[in-house]
Specification:
It is built from 14 helices and 27 strands. The structure holds flavin-adenine dinucleotide. Flavin-adenine dinucleotide binds next to helix 1, strand 11 and helix 7. Flavin-adenine dinucleotide binds near residues 13 and 14.
């Protein structure tokens, strides 16, 4: 008889994987090092694809009673308090965004697992290592051996499974600290069932509410302020804090595993990828992993190992996750732009720009990594491309540089999927924008839709010639 599938980590992704396998009749042993479910509010947003996946697992009660369709995403300039964009979260007349509590989802998954005869769940059981389809597990101070047909590591961001399998990660250096507060209120705010983001370079913040719950997230640059008072939270949330459920500081890293499969060991969820919560897609992607992987493991469990089929999991999922990481980073730095993290389209071309706004560290921006074409990823992501177009429809570029048609074409390409409007400083619209932004001398200014300046740069003569030559070459070939 086949050995069970061993799943390490009873977080949401491990539990959903076990349930999918159960629905296909495959026995699994799900082990968890904690004593019980955690009680910390984390994910709060799910997209509609995930709701459909949860329906397939049979979480009907959860879907009926515990999710709240989001009425939209609203973007404000933090300093002006003016709404500059309202994102429609309906696609093809279907709501695409839902608010929920990760704890409620985990409780519901646990109830389903307890009903299953195929899943054996062990708390207080820690994975130590694995070799040759045998794992070492620590249970109450003793080490026991456990054979498996497949080992699935859903053991979160500091995955031991990945570690002992020699899996390495590609890191995307976009690091932020978020201070997050979840609280109960008795005064439902006027942004009930929606998400509001206040964009700013210095301390952007997000607020959202559903039922009697409110979440406020304040973004800081690393080394920023560490703690906030209830008074400030009430001011930002525009409502009364009745009871704080949880408040903490989070450091968000962004990375993706280079390998997702080593022999019969496979990783999924946060063990395979992490990203900041700017579009609430970390868990969503873990659930997509579970959905993609479980039927393939079930097929191999019954019919013998098919390398090609199992490898198709990482091929399909990795590309998709990369696109979500791209979308997350782009969204994140548009909300929280600082010169350190700024998108410098010219820099993408390897052309140095002199920044005249604030001193900037020498060397390249740490956001742009040569091998990861952020914009290209966003542009090809399909439905999310539409989503971004709902969020940001245009950038304005005011430049006194005499840009050639080729340069304009290339900048437009780099800013895909946004429309880019070019203005000369003599133009009436440009003049009023410059007045609002108190910019006197213009060389090149890029402005995002809420009128925050992305950067104001001066191209020196050598750079200008280099750009023109680059474009000339492209145009001639
Ligand atoms: C503040 C915050 C807000 C977020 N908001 C969103 C959002 O709105 N939408 C969204 O989609 N995502 C969001 N996320 C991300 C989401 O919470 C995670 O992606 C999700 O929890 C990952 O699930 P997982 O099962 O892969 O890992 P985890 O939830 O980390 O579970 C891993 C489990 O493995 C166990 N484990 C670890 N090592 C071992 C071992 N050696 N042996 C046995 N067990 C082990 C751990 O104890 C843990 O229970 C947010 C995260 C945070 C922190």
């Amino acid at each position: 008889m086949n050995q069970p599938v061993l799943i390490i980590g009873a977080g949401p992704v491990g539990m959903i994987t076990a349930l999918f396998l159960d629905r296909l009749g495959v026995p699994s042993l799900l082990i968890e090092k904690r004593k019980q479910l955690p009680d910390i509010p984390r994910a709060i947003h799910l997209d509609s694809e995930i709701i459909n996946i949860l329906k397939l697992v049979g979480l009907d009660d959860f879907i009926t009673n515990q999710i709240y369709p989001s009425k939209g995403l609203f973007l404000f300039g933090k300093n002006t308090n003016k709404k500059f964009l309202q994102a429609n979260l309906n696609f093809n007349n279907e709501c695409s965004s839902f608010l929920f509590d990760q704890n409620h989802l985990e409780q519901e998954l646990l109830r389903e697992i307890e009903k299953s005869i195929n899943i054996s769940l062990k708390y207080n059981c820690e994975f130590i290592s694995a070799y040759n389809q045998k794992a070492e597990l620590a249970v109450q101070g003793q080490v026991i051996d456990q054979s498996f047909s497949y080992l699935i590591g859903t053991d979160g961001a500091n995955s031991k499974v990945a570690d002992v399998s020699g899996i390495k990660y590609t890191e995307y250096p976009y690091r932020k600290i978020n201070y997050k507060v979840d609280f109960i209120t008795d005064q439902p705010p006027n942004y009930q069932n929606r998400i509001e983001k206040f964009c700013s370079t210095n301390g952007s913040f997000v607020r959202m509410a559903f039922k009697d719950r409110v979440r406020v997230e304040i973004t800081n640059n690393p080394n920023g302020e560490a703690e906030y008072s209830i008074k400030l939270i009430e001011k930002l949330a525009q409502t009364r804090v009745k009871k704080v459920l949880h408040a903490d500081k989070y450091y968000f890293n962004t990375r993706i595993a280079n390998k997702w499969i080593v022999d019969r060991t496979i990783i999924a969820g946060d063990a395979a990828h992490t990203m900041p919560p700017y579009i609430g897609e970390g868990l969503c992607n873990g659930i997509r992993d579970a959905f993609n992987l479980s039927w393939k493991v079930a097929f191999c469990y019954y019919n013998g190992h098919h390398d090609f089929l199992i490898k198709s999991y990482s091929k399909e999922r990795k590309n998709n996750v990369k696109k979500y990481i791209g979308l997350t980073l782009l969204t994140g730095f548009l909300f929280t732009t600082s010169l350190r993290y700024i998108l410098k389209p010219f820099e993408l071309l390897g052309i140095p720009l002199k920044i005249n706004q604030k001193p900037v560290k020498k060397g390249k921006s740490d956001l742009i990594i040569p091998k990861f074409d952020l914009l290209a990823n966003v542009a090809t992501v399909g439905r999310e491309w539409d989503y971004m177009r709902h969020l940001y429809n245009s950038f304005t570029i005011i430049t006194s540089e005499d840009l050639s048609k080729g340069a304009i074409k290339e900048i437009t390409r780099l800013f895909t999927p946004f429309n880019v409007n070019f203005y000369s400083p003599e133009d009436k619209i440009a003049q009023s924008v410059l007045r609002i932004l108190k910019i006197k001398k213009v060389k090149s200014v890029i402005i995002r839709p809420d009128l925050s300046v992305l950067f104001s740069g001066i191209l020196n003569e050598a750079s200008r010639i280099k750009i023109q030559n680059t474009f000339k070459k492209e145009i001639i070939s």
